[in-house]
Amino acid sequence: MLQIKSFTFNPFAENTYVLYDETGDALIIDPGCYEKQEKGSLFDFVADKELQPVKLINTHCHIDHVLGNAFVRSTYDIPLWYHKEEEAILRAVSSYAPNYGFAQYQDSKADHYIKEGEWIKFGNQQLLCIWVPGHSPGHLVFYEEKNRICIGGDTLFKGSIGRTDLPGGDHETLLSAIKTKLFILPDEVIVYPGHGPETSIGEEKKNNPFVGKNSSV
């Protein structure tokens, strides 16, 4: 059975996720851990559950989602996967990380570029990769149909959507992508976002002020 553990890391209150099942195989998604205690809490959870991380995945590559990439990749000797359109976004992080107080940030590089429609497999699980651009050019979400869960990154939040004023962002693109890529999923799908609490596709279709049925857009 698929299990999800969430951590909230760094001053941006970013949600990091560990997905795992009865085999012990695990995915680590968007590691935002930077401080020693943050890295320690992730490491201790993996050790306590006797998990074997097999892949490191980024929904997208803004600074708050990649601070722990190098730590996770080297600690578990696992490959880093993200969309090719995020390459420039990730390369830029080193140049501005010190300005945000992350002077010890370590860069990381892709071992594999994810394509839309690709499946990420681990243990007895598989996630469908769905391209949802707008917050960033190569933003992906990961959908697990059997358990009706979606790791949404910074696309759709409870009562909100991802910001689009960062380099590579586009407001209309994000609105369209949410409506055509996410809102076609079943209403009962639970969205685990990059910040804040979980929500559901049905809830946001009904009440989200940006893309819900009563939105002005």
From TrEMBL:
UniProt cofactor(s): Zn(2+)
Chain segments carrying region Disordered: 196-217
Residue span, Metallo-beta-lactamase domain: 13-195
SMART domains: Lactamase_B
GO MF annotation: an example: hydrolase activity
Record keyword Metal-binding present: yes
Alphabetical UniProt keywords: Hydrolase, Metal-binding, Zinc
Listed name of the protein: Glyoxylase, beta-lactamase superfamily II
